[in-house]
Request: fold
Amino acid sequence: MLSRLPVGSLKNVGASFAGARSRAFSGMRVAPPLASRATLASATVLAVGSVAWYTNLYGTLPFIGEVHANSPAEEGLHSPQYPWSHSGLLDSFDHASIRRGYQVYREVCAACHSLDRTAWRNLVGVSHTVDEVKAMAEEVEYEDGPNDQGEMFQRPGKLSDYMPPPYPNEEAARASNSGALPPDLSLIVKARHGGADYIFALLTGYRDPPAGFEIRDDMNYNPYFPGNAIAMARVLFDGLVEYDDEPEHDERKKAGLKAVIIFSALTAVSLYVKRFKWSVIKSRKIPPMSSESWPPPLKYGSVSPRPPHGSLYRRRDWVAKCLGQMTDSNRAEAQAELRQVIADSFVNKTLWTTDWAGVQLKSHDGATVSNKKTKKATIFKTAGESALDPQDLAALNRRAARFQREHDIERQKNARNMGDHRSPYPGYGNPHLFKEHLGTPDTDEPESNHACFLNVPNWDRFTIVGTSQEIFKDYLRLTSEPKPEQIRPYPVLQQTLDQLKKRWREKVSYSWICSQFKSLRQDLTVQRIKNEFTVTVYEIHARMALEVGDMVEYNQCQAMLRNLYELGIPGKVEEFTAYRILMLLHGRNRSELNLERIRALMVMTKAYKTISLSFIQNELAFDTLAVAREFLMDHRAGFFQNPNSPDMEKILDCKPAGAPLAQVFEEKYRKVQIKGAV
Reply:
């Protein structure tokens, strides 16, 4: 078709096409700069908007830090960042820790705060099993209906139900908390700036208000709360909640990792030793020895033909003799000394030249003397009975009785002269134990007494008695065996307590006083001193800890005082029992009360066949019969002979109720020692 057009027309078309092409290229050269500027402006607007949105949502600039719109007094002190175990990129939540957190909420926080947006099923697989959650849900009654008659009814809770609030409405919650509304805790971590760091800092950040800061009587000072004044008082204290399991998850993981590393290193070292060291020794050929190359003292007939008792004992016979003289009380010490003696003689190159007949172990001295005395008394007694006539034997017996009476009279006089003085160190109040401690035998004791106590370990010989004369000494955790020159003796410890009481009246820093008291307690423990002075030390430290609010040291002193009181050592038992009761009432902790009730029920079910519910209410101090019945049902012991009768007439069948009570006691009230509770 183009071939039919005139040549001029083709030229015009070509020119127009070339012009259009040149205009298109010129437009393209102008468009990129305009497009790049528009893209840059759009990207800038998007970045600034994203930063503003992130800052408004989280309160911090991304990758930079904090941004505060108001002053710290208005917004509260910013919480620090804590090293949570689940904060890592590949870390997950600790389900045992979540279970303990729910236990804290149920025993402490649930009195005022609700979890309205959390259903029971949300706990399944996270902190509890399905059966446990069902049991907890069934403890709560929910209103449902209408039924076939059009009436509302009460039913036990199900997994789909939401957790009940502590108050029926907001007005009741405000009235119970001085006008303040306790917030719902379902989404509290997401709803608060700072998340878990803020919650932890708020709960543990209660302080005394600084000078010049005015606060109402019904408010509490907390620097992390906006306005620094919060209506909620401090509710969490160490030892307030008795956990079902141990809260040492992170410590166990770290210890397990260290153990894996150590065992891996030991495995590598053992493989190296077996491959390159032991295999060479094992494959080495040992040439046979002739009689000329054998050490001369061990050759048969090399020793002068003297009587057996004067010859050199062979080491094997001496070792057999030592092993035969060992008793249960000194076996470990004698074996250690035996190995040490042989090793020293080998190092000194006297293994073949030592006269082993004259070597006696120190640990065998007391046992040998006692055995010799017993054997000698037996031999003399047998020989006397066979060689003397009845009259001479009767005269010897009367003489022995007279000497024994004289010894007893002399011993009683010495006891009266000593009075009731008791040494603070265990075993030193008895003169015979004191002689054993010094290594001197008690010749006044009958021979039979030595033979009777041969197998009783003398623990007093291992008691450390300090020699340091320093009045004050900072507390340091023991990492090795204590040395006597670093331990203060009993008289110096008494002077230390007097000085610490004077310093406390002079308003000295509590941190220094606490360190000194911990060092004092450590010296008492190392020296096994448990008397009235020990009780006084712990009581004074517990009172000081209460004054400054140091609940960690108070709980440690309280636990030690309970052990000392159980030993029968006198002290302020009523005072510290009252302190413990007040702490339990303040924390609403009924675990120990229920523990004693379970123990009483276990005894009662073993002693009786049937018990009335009213008797259980009176004996175990329940408020009402309904509370007593619910307690039995909660602990799987509600086996009544007449379950449909009124509570006043209900009779408990003790035989089937005994086994569940013992099982519940082991499962629910098993005590676990906690260190470092969060």
Residues 7-58 form the longest helix (52 residues). The first strand starts at residue 60 and ends at 61.
